[in-house]
Design a protein that fits this description.
- By secondary structure, the chain is of the alpha+beta class.
- The protein is 42% helix and 15% strand.
- The protein has 6 helices and 4 strands.
- It has a 4-stranded mixed beta sheet, covered by helices on one side.
- Helix 1 links the parallel strand 1 and strand 2.
- Helix 2 crosses helix 5.
């Protein structure tokens, strides 16, 4: 299981703690320290579309007008922290966020 996020994200921390407590081996991928490849970004956007970008984040609000109207792939490539977190890949299935639906599926 791979959890994509940033180390300062409280939601990522909660997800890792809960997943490990449930017996899952979680590999954390810091998308700032180890940027996503173009193929990884494409896969995430294929799975989640525009939802992959957190448009309420301060990172997104700081984008210039050109970047705000760019496609999600360009936005995530330009600033990985704009990606909604966490993104979790588990056995070929993809999950976005850490809501009740994701928790039910993984815990």
């Amino acid at each position: 299981m791979i959890l994509y996020g940033i180390p300062t994200c409280d939601t990522c921390k909660k997800a890792i703690k809960a997943l490990e407590a449930a017996g899952h081996e979680v590999k954390f991928r810091d998308v700032r320290a180890e940027p996503l490849s173009e193929a990884e970004i494409d896969k995430i956007v294929q799975e989640f579309g525009d939802l992959a970008v957190n448009k309420q984040s301060t990172t997104y609000r700081a984008f210039n007008d050109y970047l705000k109207v760019s496609d999600p792939e360009a936005q995530i490539a330009a600033q990985p922290a704009v990606m909604k977190r966490p993104v979790i890949e588990a056995d070929g299935r993809w999950f976005l966020g850490w809501d009740d639906k994701v928790q039910t599926a993984l815990l």
